[in-house]
Target: cAMP-dependent protein kinase
Amino acid sequence: MATLHPSQLLYTNADGPSSTAGPSLLKDVSSSSFPGHSSGLHPLHDVTIGASTSSTTFPVGTSTFTSPSPTGPEQCPDTTSNGENCARHNGPLAENLKIDDFVRIRTLGTGTFARVVLVRRHHPRTEEEARQVFALKILRKATVIKLKQIDHVRHERQILQDVSGHPFITNMLASFHDHDFLYILLDYVPGGELFSYLRKFRRFDEPTARFYAAEIVLVLEYLHEQQDGVAYRDLKPENLLLDGMGHVKLVDFGFAKRLGRDGAGGAVETYTLCGTPEYIAPEVIQNMGHTTAVDWWALGILIYEFLTGYPPFWHQNPLEIYRQILETPVVFAQDPSISPAAQDIVHQLCTVDRSRRLGNINGGAAKIKAHPFFESVDWAALLERRDQGPIVPPVRFTGDAQCFDIYPENDVDFEQYTQELADQYDRFFTNF
Model:
């Protein structure tokens, strides 16, 4: 699923060395009262992904998890004359899906050109199907075109398809479209945002912070080392949902990008300026090229926020946040008391020189997993989800949405996808 609150984002359209004087900022209309966070669906996306057509395994110890084999573009059924019915599937769903196959229950979140809604099947064939619910991400074609995000939303769908099946990543089930909208059908993750629990408890104790940080390490290890260098680029509590057992699900791959490796075996750099100010790595701000190392910096910021209740760099003016990131080291206050191991891993992750940053040095994620902060973690048991998480959401029944905020059910402004737009742009959505 996508993140369920509007976020303050940093983004520029070009994906190459930029000559601009500084980043452009985009801020959504609604914001959270929590310092350092504005809240939703990312209004902008920047993804470049290569298609994958084979199943993926997640080995840890003697256990493996296998994701469904994604359906390649050549297997996508032809669209009808009205542009409907092209669907991609990662599961036992009917072919040629359309919006009338689902009944809308309520909105889970909104953004600049997308809405995520809780849905159920309109015509269930069994009692089991009648109980099933899904999260459906709905994107307005007209706004996608207006914001020049066609390739980005297509590539977001592709990367979601490629990574579906990992235990700590949202699972894409299908995608389809009609005349006005693009649709991405996902597993429903009922526990809501980890951010809401952090706000409720003010901060996490170290065992809780360690548990969720460890699950994130497993996700980043998979994206970086088993998915040909996928940089996620927007790690923050709002993009982590909790499932019914209290395990994380990473959502919203709108800024993810598959970087791959250069001819010498090193990571390919990218120059796109994107992210959320409090978590952006120094090399992104400096616009000197960045790699998957940005995710390890963001993990350090996230662990700090888990333990203290606030990020180490924050100001009402984002430009001041960027100055702090470039010029001010991460400092822990005396209260609350943070263990030396926790402080050390944050400092090693939040190292300005990425060539010395933990996770980006030789050994990759294995070096992080071997750090004393994670000494008590059974990594195989964690990946197999043998135990409940430290926070178990109060989910009362299948389809319970009490862990999500209430949103208006209707769009205030709705741009029409005219026939003129359809004639010009429908060809780009044929294989969505």
Observations:
- The chain has two domains: 9-41+191-383, 73-190+401-419.
- The radius of gyration is 21 Å.
